[in-house]
Design a protein that fits this description.
Layout: H1 2-23, H2 29-35, H3 42-70, H4 74-92, H5 94-97, H6 101-127, H7 133-161, H8 165-181, H9 196-201, H10 210-238, H11 242-258, H12 260-270, H13 273-292, H14 296-324, H15 330-359, H16 361-378, H17 380-389, H18 392-395
């Protein structure tokens, strides 16, 4: 059991590292795209973020299905981390090399194709551990939250020093974690499918996965919205610099991180319905409350509440995926979940950016927060039915020998 505890920590660190590398760039996105040769407006920032997440969408299921087919995840997750690091270093040297912004976007997309492998497969490897799906997905969730919290604070401060500094820092983090990942025990179960296409095709036989996939899409859409529109909103409305915007993002990500692990354990004990449905309703309400907060202090306090509500939803939703999928399908299933999540991020960037351009910040916040509340109401019965079918003891969510 000691080996599983150690591997859980290392895998959570890998998830943490990927989020740090991503979010380091967000607070200073306007300064970064300017340094890379674009204008620093909302549209340029949106395109830069979309390039990476488009690659996430295309490659997340491929990495997962490939790992299921091979019955191995460790070599693939190491390659993903190192490839992501190389892309960040290339971007950091792009101005020196004289690369145009279009070339930087291509590098960004290639980096995304590698980075999603490190992220998605680290979560899949957590799901391979015993100890309860909620517990393991809670470990992933706290890593996501802490990585985003640290990345938002440090990234904002690094940007003040040099807009390209977050890129070098992101590369260094991924290189270190790649070395740690090489020491993790591979517990993947090999699929009977002979090729990646067949492994992906098996997911269509489990339509129940669409329920957590839909929640993952909406939840990540809100995160993408805050990563782009939220940063611009805080900087313009309250006159913050990149460091201040990073601190506002951290007001969300710190409680989002700290409550994930206990929320995951709670979902193992009470089921997935209450954390997913009630948590989503609260999440939507608090998102809307951010834009009506009249002062910086109240806005920061509301962001804390957004983080607490989001923490209820995230681990239970990922645990639903592992409840439904068979052990030999988890890589592809979590890859599919990350596809929907990445599509959500893309939607958050595009829908948030376009709505803000056309109607302003308040309608954009109302739209995104309202979507979170609508999915909770519309899908409540489906979540209840799925939660009742995946009885905790039988789904693998609670197992003997907790470690």
């Amino acid at each position: 059991m000691g080996s599983q505890r150690r591997d859980r920590v290392v895998l959570a660190m890998a998830v943490w590292a990927v989020l740090v590398s991503q979010v380091l760039l967000y607070p200073g996105i306007a300064d970064l795209v300017t340094a890379l040769g674009a204008t620093g407006d909302l549209d340029a920032g949106m395109v830069f973020l979309v390039a990476e997440f488009a690659a996430f969408v295309l490659f997340a299921p491929v990495w997962g299905a490939l790992s299921d087919t091979l019955g191995k995840r460790v070599p693939l997750v190491v390659v993903g981390a190192l490839g992501g690091a190389a892309a960040y270093l290339t971007l950091a040297t792009a101005p020196t090399l004289g690369l145009p912004f279009t070339a930087a976007l291509l590098v960004r997309a290639v980096g995304g194709a590698f980075t999603i492998g490190a992220f998605s497969l680290s979560i899949s490897m957590l799901s391979d551990l015993s100890g309860g799906h909620g517990r393991n997905m809670g470990a992933a969730g706290i890593a996501i939250g802490l990585g985003a919290a640290l990345g938002s604070v440090v990234g904002g401060r690094l940007t003040v020093v040099d807009p390209l500094a977050p890129l070098a820092a992101a590369a260094g983090v991924l290189v270190v974690v790649a070395g740690l990942l090489a020491t993790v025990t591979d517990r993947a179960e090999q699929s009977d499918d002979a090729d990646v296409g067949a492994a992906l095709g098996r997911l269509t036989a489990r339509p129940a996965l669409l329920v957590p996939f839909a929640f993952g899409f909406i939840d990540r859409m809100t995160a993408g919205f805050f990563a782009l529109v939220g940063v611009y909103y805080f900087r313009e409305t309250f006159g913050l610099d990149a460091a201040g915007a990073g601190a506002m993002l951290a007001a969300f990500f710190v409680p989002f991180a700290l409550f994930q692990y206990p929320a995951g354990i709670l979902s193992d004990r009470v089921g997935r319905f209450l954390p997913v449905v009630v948590g989503s309703l609260l999440y939507g309400v608090t998102i809307v409350a951010v834009v009506v907060a009249p002062t910086l202090v109240l806005a920061a306090g509301t962001m804390v509440l957004v983080g607490v509500a989001g923490a209820l939803v995230a681990p239970a939703t990922m645990a639903l995926v592992t409840d439904v999928a068979a052990p030999e399908e988890r890589g592809a299933a979590l890859g599919g979940f990350n596809v929907f999540g990445s599509l959500g991020f893309l939607t958050g960037f595009l829908l948030g950016g376009l709505t803000t351009d056309l109607a302003g910040y308040t309608p954009a916040f109302l739209l995104v927060g309202g979507a979170e509340m609508v999915i909770a109401v519309v899908a409540a019965r489906a979540v209840k039915r799925l939660a009742d079918q995946t009885i905790l003891g039988e789904s693998g969510s609670v197992s003997a020998g907790d470690d």
